[in-house]
Each structure stands twice: as structure tokens, then as C-alpha cells.
Amino acid sequence: MNVGECYIGWAVDEDVRKRGGSGGLVVATLAAALEKGLVEKVLVLKKHSTYDAEPVLTSDPEEVLASAGSLHAVPAALSKKIPYGVKVAAVGKPCDIRGMYQMALRQQFNLDDTYLIGLNCGGTLPPVPTRQMIRVMYGIDPDEVVHEEIAKGNLIFTTRDGQEHAKKIDELEEAGFGRRESCRYCIVKIPTNADLACGNWGVPKDKLGAATFVEVCTEKGVQLLTTAVDAGYVQVEPASDKSKEIRKKVEKAMLDLSAKWRERIFVPIENRLEFYREALRHCILCNACKEVCPVCACGEDSKCTTMPSSLETHNHEFYHLIRFLHIMDSCVACGMCTDVCPAEIKVSTLQARYSLPFQEEKGYVAGMKLEKPPFFEVE
Amino acid sequence: MSEEWEPKIIMFCCNWCSYGGSDTAGVARFQQPPTTRIIRVMCSGRVDPTFVLDAFLEGADGVLVTGCHIGDCHYINGNEKTKVRYEFLKRVVEEFGIEPERLKLEWISASEGDKFASFVKQATEDIKKLGPSPLKPEVVE
Ligand SMILES: Cc1cc2nc3c(=O)[nH]c(=O)nc-3n(C[C@H](O)[C@H](O)[C@H](O)COP(=O)(O)OP(=O)(O)OC[C@H]3O[C@@H](n4cnc5c(N)ncnc54)[C@H](O)[C@@H]3O)c2cc1C
Ligand code: SF4
Ligand code: SF4
Ligand code: SF4
User: Which of helix, strand or coil describes residue B76?
Assistant: First the structure.
């Protein structure tokens, strides 16, 4: 097995394969890494419901296997959960993996000790509006949903009675539901910065839902996958050229869609000062957006939280000005700051107004490499 | 305000060069408008972007950051760092809708008194044309 190779793979255990989002390869590989001593802990999402899950750092292979399945309505903050000095394997969407790179860059943990499995991502749904969407658009009780799936542009919910309910994602988004705003303009759909990049794009028809397309991106990826295969946890076969082609095609279609949304969302603004003032007017300086941010490693005594005075309302803007400035080179546009804002401010899109064009101009995508941004190097 | 409006400009000067430049300008009696409030720092690299943003939020109509010419930094590369930071800072200030003329970076050595004076003169003229900063809190005149 070599870096750059692509496989179609699945969990050998029938039950894991069935429960997996797409064949259970990911959890089986993570469990094997634990069993075989490649890592001490694994970071996965512990599912509570279709809309709720929490990140857990575990050394129990059973708990890892239990996390099988893709949760599309759970945006979770993962990058700050990797401890320093512990050998960890973690899983995440492109924005999660990019956040992890930013944390490693800021010495929050050692990337050499960390194995990352990335999941392709077409987008996540915001949990609370999604429950409402299920009521309004599907006419079903969100608590009756036992399984959710995205296939061929459809968002499909399976209810307790075994019924499948499908609707086009485009249609849902036109109605104001669907993916989170940041996902619509997200620019990394396949996390090739992870050690393994896994997803269902490119899986042959006869194995759809029961296997995953895996790209081996690094030497550590080779190690992860061979360990899982040798341990008898995972089975793989080389991906055909057709599979690779299809995967590329879908990725391109998704990126084109992102570019379209980007034009729709980032419309030019006449009076920017007024626009930002109006947008940030209801900020209560709770700092939740900073706490959740996967690329911010400043901790408690950060400039943005300690410098604005809560008494002087005119300098409330200070908090956001500092954050905009600090995060401009590293924001991965994950959208989590928007998710947590109690004042319903679209913080991430405000931030992305600065950071996306800036990063683009500098010719780099934040969180894809361990190196500092090139323009940061001072001799 | 009966007289003609004069802008309030915060100017950061490096101890080793531009601060000396202001002295040279004074000794040589180069004319310049009294619009600046100079804050001396040990290096332009000491100018945290937050100083600049805070100056604007506290009512400055313009902010000037000055330091030694590239290659002449007393601390080897402090001004190179200033350059990198300034690029971020400018971006935020402009995106926020503050006119780019309100924020300037210039390298001025201790001997360049004439450059110091003409820089202040030019900056004052530019800012005067724009009028008071839109970020000025209502309580500050
Ligand atoms: C939100 C989301 C969107 C996706 N979109 C696409 C897509 O558009 N195209 C594509 O090819 N593939 C996509 N995938 C990947 C695909 O669904 C499978 O996860 C992948 O093929 C691996 O399947 P598996 O059975 O091996 O994973 P499993 O063995 O089931 O393991 C999945 C692992 O992912 C973790 N996980 C589940 N939900 C999340 C989440 N929301 N955030 C972080 N970690 C999570 C679980 O903890 C578990 O450890 C997406 C995955 C997710 C989570
Ligand atoms: S921001 Fe991108 S990677 Fe993250 S959940 Fe949305 S689409 Fe997926
Ligand atoms: S600023 Fe917001 S969108 Fe950007 S990385 Fe942080 S939480 Fe994500
Ligand atoms: S989460 Fe919202 S209210 Fe809280 S500090 Fe951030 S922008 Fe302000």
C-alpha cells in the first residue's frame, strides 16, 4: 500500500458494516488502531439522537465502534479536544481536520502523534431548524426519525415505522432550510490533508451504503489502513479508474455549487461601516463564538475578550475587530461561531468576508498544511 | 467649532528613527501642522494592531505608524513584522468602511526631518478632506 492510492473498503464485522455511515470502515480502522496500540485514545462523536452528539475521547474500542454512522445534523467542535502528548486518532469533516491543523500549528498538540481520518463533506444541517424543517417540509415528527441519509441530492429521513421520506436538498434550501450557511460556500469537500480521506463518492453502485472510498494521503494513512487490514477489521480492494473519476466529478460539481452560493451570499455592500454596526449591534459579548472556534488557541486571557470594556459601548466593536484581525489568516469558515451565537449574528459569514478573499489573494487555503502561511515568514 | 476643523491624528514613532526624525524636523524648523499626538515606542514592531484599532474607536481621525527603513531596524527585523501586521490591519480597517487614507505606514530615518514634516503635512491634508472619522464615538469631538 502506498501514499496516493485509492481503495474501496468496508468493515469485516457484518454488524459494524451495517451500522456504519457507509460500510463502517472508519470506525473499524479507528478501533484497530486502538487494539493494535497505534494510538492511546480515539476521538469520535457519541450519538445521543439524530440531532445531538458529543465528542468523546475514548480508549474503549467498543465505544469507537458504537459511534458508527454519519450525523448530518450535528456540527461538533472537535479540534480543541485533542490533548497534548497523547497519541490520538481522530475523525472529522474537512473543516474539523483543518481546525486540527490550526491547533497543531499553535502547538496545542503534536501532529506527528496524531492520526486523522477525514470524511468528505457535502455539508451539515443545523439541528434546531432541521427539526422544524422535518415538521414543516416533510410533515413528520422529528422525534420519529431513526435514520438520515443523503443520496443523489436528496435528504432522506427514515421513521420508526420503516418509511423513507425524501426531498431534494435544493428545494429545501430554496425554502430557507437545508445546509448551514457556511457549508453552502465551503471550499474543501475532500479532506486530503487528513491521513485517510473517506467518503461515499465513487463507491460502485452494488456496494453503495456498504463501502467507503478511501484515499491514502500520507505514510500515517498507510500505517492506519494496513494495521486495520492486517488485524482483520477491514477489507479493501483497489478503486477502479471509474470510481476515481466519479468521485472527482461529484467533488467538482459540489465546488461549483459552493462558488454559486458564494456569489449569492457575499453581495457587495455600500455602506460597510453601517452594515457591520447593524450586524453586530446585538452582540452581548458572551465570547461563545471565540470559545467554539476551532482555530483560536488563545485561551482565557485573549486580547479580544479582555480588551473591550463592557461599560463603554462604543468599544464593543473592539472584540470583533480583534477577532476579525486575528483569525483572518486562519479561519476555516466552519460556521460554528454562527451556530452558537445567542444573538443570532452570522458571525462566520462576517468573518469570511475578510478571510476568504484574503486567503485567496495569498494563494493558500487555511488549515491544509502544517506550515505557517507563507507571508508570515520573517527572516 | 467655529474655527476650521483640525483632525486629531495619533502617530506612532520608533525611538530609534522616526522619533529622531521629528526632532530633526523641529531643529531644522520645517513647518508642519500641529495635528499629531506622538506616541513613542521602542520599535514600530511594538505597535500592536489593537493600539491602532483602539485609537480609532477612541476618536482618532487618522493613525500613522512610522519606523526605520527596512534593513535598518535596531532590533534586526521588527519593522518586517510591522509590515506583515500592517497588511492585516489595513484590510480590517478598510473592510470596516474606514477610508484607507486614515491609516498610513511610512519609514522615516532620524535624519529625514524634511520627510517627517512633509509626511505629516500630506497626511493631515488627506484626512482633512475626508472630515471626522466615521468611527468617532458620539461623545468625542
Ligand atoms: C456530515 C457529513 C457529511 C458527509 N457528506 C459526504 C458527502 O457529501 N460525500 C461523501 O462522499 N461522503 C460524505 N460523508 C462521509 C460518509 O458519509 C461516511 O462518513 C464515510 O464514507 C465513512 O463511512 P464509514 O461507514 O466508514 O464511517 P463510520 O464507520 O460510520 O464512521 C463514521 C465516523 O464519523 C464520525 N461522525 C459522524 N458524524 C459526524 C459529524 N457530523 N462530524 C464529525 N464526525 C462525525 C463518527 O463519530 C464516526 O466515528 C459525510 C459525512 C458526514 C459526517
Ligand atoms: S463547513 Fe464545509 S466541511 Fe464543515 S460541515 Fe460545512 S461543508 Fe462540511
Ligand atoms: S471564526 Fe467562525 S467560521 Fe472561522 S474558524 Fe472560527 S468558528 Fe469557524
Ligand atoms: S457569540 Fe454572538 S453574542 Fe456572543 S460574543 Fe459572539 S457575536 Fe457576540
Answer: coil
